[in-house]
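Give me structure tokens for this 732-residue protein.
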Amino acid sequence: MKNIGFEPKDMETNKHIWRFETIGGVRRVNLNSGADLVALESLDQKLWTALSCPVNGLEIDPHTLQLIDTNQDEQIRVPEILAAVKWVLGILKDPNDLLVGSNRMPLNSINEKSEKGREILASARIILKNLGKSEQEYIELEDTIDSVQIFAGTAFNGDGIITVDSTSKTDLQKAIQDIIACMGSVQDRGGKEGIDEPKISTFFEACTSYQKWQQQKLDISQKILPFGENTAIAYELFLEVRKKIDDYFLRCKLAAFDPDTTHILNQLHSQVEHIVGSNLSEKIEEIKGYPLAKIEANKNLNLLSGINPIWESKLKKFHELFIGSTSKEISENDWQAIQKNLEPYAEWCYREVGSDVAMLGIDRIEELLNSNTKTELLTLVEEDKALYKEAESMMEVNKLLQYHRDLFTLLRNFVSFNDFYTPNKKAIFQSGTLYIDQRSCELCLKVNDISRHHNLVSYSNMFLIYCKCIAKADGEEMIIVAALTNGDITNLIVGRNALFYDRSGKDWDATIIKIIDNPISIRQAFFTPYRKISNFISTQVEKFAAAQDEKVQHNVKGGINKTAEKMEEKTQSASEEVDAESLASDATKFDIGKFVGIFAAISIALGALGGALASIIGGFLALVWWKMPLAILAIILLISTPSMLIAYLKLRKRNLAPLLDANGWAINAQATVNIKFGNLLTQFASIPLNSELNLNDPFSKKGMAPWKVAVIIGFAIGVILFLIAKLIFHFF
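Here you go.
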């Protein structure tokens, strides 16, 4: 075999026989056997069609691509593909199994002679057992996708998280529930709520801190518990009424400072008047904001009478705990003494630690600390971690099944573009089919970064249509670019609507937002100059007509306005004798000179054009009869040849690579789309075989009258006979 692309040292080290074929103008390697996959690492990277591709936006399971993308940079490169191939071939007995691309794999296809193969085979059997499929001799990709279902029935799954199902001991189960209640939970692979080593350590640290904090209270109880066991209740009540009592004594001080403000400080009359017409039971919060008691200068606070009814019960309880039967009132000095008495307890509360576990109570906390619970829980965690390798092997079963189904497809679209150039198959970068103008465009790509497309698409030399697509089902949006490689472009304009079907059959409303104009075919290029000339003439005529129409309307309006002004200046007596001739003259005289100039210009132009046409026709008629068609053909070729030549050169250079590069690929070779292949990528509507076609269109243009046909035929025969006679006379 001829050496293509290998260095001499490569030929010395690589004894594998590679097979190449020319696809899309480039020699590409064929991957047709497991032996090709085994030797793939020795294939020179210069012979690979692609060197990198994105993880997202391709028509292949993204989970498979994420598994291959080991460095998680959203790009797949050659070393990562080689590593994936090497990994899977180390597990399978026969490399040819990868060529099938199936989501079902027989268990006996796993190589038990390799250590990794034995691990994965054992894990596959455990998965089938957990799913109730122990007797099954094959495993499917669907069996490995739901990790929650796989590990649902297992006590340990190697993730270092234990649940109440991880032990049969009641005390440990209760401890796990207590930790979850105080510290929250983490979810294990089986989908259950559990705890891990950090949760256990944090919990018992909090318990220890809380116990020490509570012990401080016992050690200095005489100092910080002025009310004994009721100190906590008293302190809580104190916090509830503190701001209100402080407010009362401050108001009394202000009343002493300025007696005239006493009635303002009480501020009850206007407020009660405001709510008296309402249901007072619905105004509790508003009444709660009223002063605690009637304000008077330097007045003590009576805790049992004359109290704001909303605070009455709390102050009564405050009296019982803090004052007792010795008095009904407290002065401001008494109030300050109570606050000072509670300061040690308040300071102790401020230093509280381990509050997360306070809900369990000190008795339960001490029970947990005095038992061996922490050690036993950590032991369970270690038992679970001991199965990490086996659990990871279960996850690798999914990896194996993903590769078993998708890896060879990726290779066919990465190492070579076989799927793209194979009829009736689609490459992983082809996102669907666009239907527009009685055509279906198969070469459609999702646009990942439209700014990169702006810089690169000009190098593709293809006619491209960018469409904004909106899914009918869920309103999802995306942008695609479709290559039009066959037909004409007459009806394609920005804003036109089409319909796009993605690879899953989901339909999207598509609207053209951008067009990159390039030749589609030699035929289209032949008519392009005439179309451009026609469009130019049509545009210029429309512009000229519009400009003249605007001038005429402007002049007519101006004349009418002037006439109206003159009529208003005439006296009332003469208004009934308007001179019709003068009015008509005023309304029309403004544009006569201009129209004369316009007609003169048109006449000159027509005269020049007529002279040129007469000269051309005269020269044409002066030719020998057999030179006439040659002259017509020469003129046509003179006009169309440059356009056709440019189209031919561009059609030969149509290249998919710039579009893929714009989408994040690193293409290593051309991906030519020649005319023949382009005709397959864009197809026209065709009537099905064995269809019946009625050619009688009731709305078609009717035929010419028979006598007109006879006259035309007779004239044509006369011209032919004249030319024949002239030819005979010329030679004889």
